[in-house]
Amino acid sequence: xxxxxxxNRIAAAVILALASLTSHAAHATAPQASASHALSTTTQLxxxxxxxxxxxxxxPDAQAATFTANVVITVDVxxxxxxxxxxxxxxxxxGATAEGAGGTQQASKIxxxxxxxxxxxxxxxxxAKGKHTLAISYSGKIGTxxxxxxxxxxxxxxxxxxxxxxxxxNSDARSVIPSWDEPDxxxxxxxxxxxxxxxxxxxxxxxxxxxxxxxxxxxxxFAVTPRMSTYLLFFGLGxxxxxxxxxxxxEVGVITKKGALAQSRFALDESAALLREYNDYFGVRYPxxxxxxxxxxxxxxxxxxMENWGAVFTFEYSLLLDPAISTQSDKENIYTTLSHExxxxxxxxxxxxxxxxxxxxxxxxxxWMESRTTERMxxxxxxxxxxxxxxxxxxxxxxxxxxxxxxxxxxxxxxxxQAFDTITYQKGESVIRMLEAYVGADxxxxxxxxxxxxxxxxxxxxxxxxxxxxxxxxxxxSAIAHDFxxxxxxxxxxxxxxxxxxxxxxxxxxxxxxxxxxxxxxxxSWRVPVIAQTVGNAKQARVLVQNGKATLSVxxxxxxxxxxxxxxxxxxxYAPKQAxxxxxxxxxxxxxxxxxxxxxxxxxxxxxxxxxxxxxxxVKATPLAADPQVWGKVASALNGLHDQYAGDQARxxxxxxxxxxxxxxxxxxxxxxxxxxxxATVATLRSQLIGTLSxxxxxxxxxxxxxxHAVRVSDPAAxxxxxxxxxxxxxxxxxxxxxxxxxxxxxxxxxxxLIRNQLYDLLASSDDTALAQRALAxxxxxxxxxxxxxxxxxxxxxxxxxLAFDFALAHIDQVNQRIDASSRSRYFPRLxxxxxxxxxxxxxxxxxxxxxxxxxxxxADTSIADIQYRIKxxxxxxxxxxxxxxxxx
Length: 889
What we know:
The chain is of the alpha+beta class.
């Protein structure tokens, strides 16, 4: 699944029998599961019956929003039993039979338990030990949100169309097929569907046969899948078209709604190149005969794409390039989505985590491969610098008391849903990057290849990977890996005063812990790989900080840079003299180290470990010629400080005046007009600067955006595709009522889904409270469409979190109808997350107590922690910035 957006159905709390018996470490070191599911394997189902094959016949009725189905499941029974329990959710059973050595018998009773999402088939005579087939007839519902089997409606010039798709991760296959819906119960799948003759049916595998049935129907049978987990099964149906290319003997395809295929060319070409790259890197060839990327209209608040084996589902905005509106950032986002989901075809699909505790083996590794491969295949985008942004996203969450280990105990379905978060994705990726730098890229690849070969078509825990890394590296890397994955938090490396002697710089490093909300916390202990160098000297020194301390000797004399290259997952706090020397040499540092130093300085200052104004001194020291991504970081950080001043207009205006003056020369250098041959990073920076200066209230930028918007018809060059969204964003943000009405009329008239979605999003982006209220009211009408409604409320929450949260809570039943059930525990807390008001703490806690199970409070507690930290920063850190601003002329 792309990035940390989860969208899985919430069940009532179902506590595992094993949960109280197995610790994080014990689970991580458990022996590999056997086919019979040894006791070390986590499960929410009774043991003793194991599936090996599903033959599913499905007949959907898109207009009635229902389906009928029959499934024949081949199972192995470990010991005689009168009952078989499997997962089922919102299914209506017609009947079931079992056939085996003892003959065939009807189920005497089928008990359905909605709370545990299970169905139990009871038989008068025990099923004997051995192989059996279970034949089950049932029916179910087709939803309107991206979970289970669902429909998406979209407008076309010929009228409204409806398409069907499935989304099963983590626990929603059970809403379409009664099954052992857990990742460790792998099986093969044979799917056939009865569908309208004029529509295209899509599955994980190629179509084996298609038979016309008359009355406008056909039966489509797909080839049998390899052995895989239930959550990877896929079915799609609609008025589609498909383009293909061959890569290493595999048919790579892109499937879109009719009329949009031309926009998929970039995705198709890059998919073919990615498949060849991954075949080489993993040393195990992609095993299926085809790999499709399916573009779907609409969107979800919690995910952009899903890695179904051989049939990747992706929302259109993450797969298609529309020349009328797409930007360089869109192209890069499409590529990272492709590379992430295709990496999952190995990390996740071929080799799957045994249970959701080790979800990071899927998501952290796919995120790391996404970044590694983008850097390798598109060096012109200079995405290597984005590793600092990824790490910062993880550390921001990891420094709060509400964090959790990368490998975490998952005891309920709802906890599995909430595991798709920043720690799983971004900390997972960052730890992998650090360990790869520690052992070397070639050694790391050898370990990954051995892991893939050894565990293909199987399930693993983290230690299965660490064993391969230890073997390839010839040293105990797993000890470091355990420190960073089995316990939460961010190490803090304090750098003592440096001493230069005989051409070398010696320094003592001390390990603590960086925390934003627990100043008196006793630090945890990590083994921390550290890379350092002196500024201007290319030679690096390495040391492993153990037991809280290490002494390091670095070649050369000069300012000392710790975490050189920024591969380490830790914060660095320098002694004052060292910090001053680095600040004086800031312009000489490589761009990635400028980013790292800026990030550490900003976070350490806001946490009270150094003067928060030191960060602004680094901003002053940033040269105009700095890398565009460094200026992008500066712009983002200044925007964040602007938000910290929300509610105090006079102080905010004083800060904004200084920030605008610092960014204005960069905007003047970048310009509004793209230059021939300019770097892709410059195009991205242009949009960032315009957006940030708009947020800061820069009158020059706002006026120019309005001017360009006003003359767009007579002068199309005034609003080129690359800036269309950015300019419209400024206009919408500062709109008056008449301008808002104009944008609303454009949204109502627009038929292209991608553009239409953007326009409704813009309607919700106004700084004006009255217009924000109009957008909220509009969101709960039928006009924007079901997938735009929650997105509009979320967009209002960026500028008006308290208003959006209060509105959503006041209309909770209507809002819940527009969000898949699994998302509710995440959606409402995220609306409130940007608030800085103390009153919101009580509101969030009351919401959680009234609407969430105790095991589903993760996002609510994190939002509460974020708000508490924001209040603390405003009270304790902003005065130092005010004092510093008063000294600036």
